[in-house]
Amino acid sequence: MSSATAFLARRLFSVRGMRSSQRVMFLVAVVGMTLAVATLFVALSLARGFEHAYRQSLLGFHAHVVLLAQGEVSDATSMLAALPERVHGLTEATPFLYREGLFIGKGSIKGVVLKGIDLQDPSWRERFRVSGNSKGEGVILGKAVFPGVDVGETVKLLIPKQHAGQSPFLDLAVAGTFSSGLYDSDSQFALIDLEQLRKLFGDPSDVITGIELFLDDPERAQSVAVSLEEWLPPTLRPVTWQELNAELFEAIRLEKTVLAIIMGMLVLVAALNIIAVVTVVIHARTREMAILSTLGISRRQRMKLLMRLGFTPGLWGTLLGLSLGIVVAFLLTRTSIIPIDPEVYLLDRLLLDLSPLLCGIIGVFSLGVTCLVAAVASQKLVSLPIIEGLRQAR
Known about the structure:
Blueprint: H1 3-12, H2 20-61, E1 65-74, H3 77-86, E2 90-105, E3 108-117, E4 129-131, E5 139-142, E6 154-158, E7 169-179, H4 183-188, E8 189-193, H5 194-201, E9 207-215, H6 221-229, E10 236-240, H7 241-244, H8 246-284, H9 286-294, H10 299-334, H11 342-345, H12 356-381, H13 386-392
Parallel strand pairs: 3-8, 5-7
Antiparallel strand pairs: 1-9, 1-10, 2-3, 2-6, 2-9, 4-7, 5-8, 6-7
């Protein structure tokens, strides 16, 4: 095929060579692919954003491995001393104690889990976003326990167990508030010094609910738990952060899979419009195709022309869709256009993961679907009898 014939062929089967009605169909195909790709990107970014936010919040509030006691444990000093040698990559081992009580404040009553930890250890402040002065005796409330509570205010704690002659109502000063990023934790937990919690409930000076282990790599939690199972006494069992939140992450994985399938089908349906574009153009250019064939254009070259014609709207739709999806995701992240209920979604705002990897995966998927659809359409249309076009040329 000569260069003049090649130029003529590309000219005839390009957007410029289309009629007005065909250009409208081309534009509809591009818009459909753009909206489908943008929807797929926003949906998967939202699912990945929630998963990332849950993971970060859970790892900030809960330990990577928890040595839970069957009941309660006393005298764990020797075990705490031996843990650094037994656990590779251990950054911190902290005993904790759980107790339940009712807080009365701000005109309401809230059931709260009191978590006793060593507040004198400064490392815990790195895990909790604390506002206020947390030094000295007092309680650090989750920010959703009593919204709007001020540091220094007094709240009443009703405990089910008290010493003889002691009132069940105890006054505690609010030393600060913390934000874990998860509504459940912020509305149901309060932090208090371990020794103070033992005194309030009249517990022995060495009783604990378990030991929290923090690792340099949270993904090693499962292997660490397995290695500790044989060494720990029967009264303690290791539980990883994945096990504690298995149902939550399983639900997120299922949601991502369903969204990917449904939104992927939207991309496929949008790509099917390309068949309509190619079909209309070919039937309108049957005469020109026949003339080009007589000038020496081969079947393979005709196939390339039709593939290029079908691939163009898919390419434009993919690029525009990813751009639109990034803009929409950015606006949803930076603004509160769509408010969410933290009691339902556990988070107080939408979080989207604008990952370059996700852009690449969606782009490859969209272009792959476009190529497949364009190839199927071109394979069928290139086989149209040329004799019919020659008759039309008379």
